[in-house]
Amino acid sequence: MKGPVPIQDAVASDTGPSNTIKLLHLLFLSTSWGMQVWVTFVAGFVMSRHLPRHTFGSIQRELFPYYFHISSTCAFLNLTLFAMSHPSERLSKENMTQVASPFLTRAGQSPNPFLCSSGCLADHGDPRTVKRNPQAPKLQ
Predict the structure, then answer these.
(1) Is 116 in contact with 68 (CB distance < 8 Å)?
(2) What is the mean pLDDT of the chain?
């Protein structure tokens, strides 16, 4: 019995993607989903219940850029792997939908680090927040 040849194993065949491509796709997908579940349902709820509001905001302000960038990178790499293993001339309508889904996810996530990390999670002493809304420290 002959084992898999590394170079041939990474190239797409006529029947479908190689095992290496499938493994990488699963790795990036599980990384993205696992991180989203952890940040949304575990870390967010625990920190919001046990930390003061301003401390929670400060931590989120530091964590969210990493969260957004890792999530965006995983979506981009999944799209790249899918495109590498499915040549465009062989794509059906269902496959085109699969290509469009991660592309739209990536496009939708692109502005998040800029919108949410600087303005939404800014603490009361941030000069940019006070400049935009002078009443912010009084409201908080």
Answers:
(1) yes
(2) 75
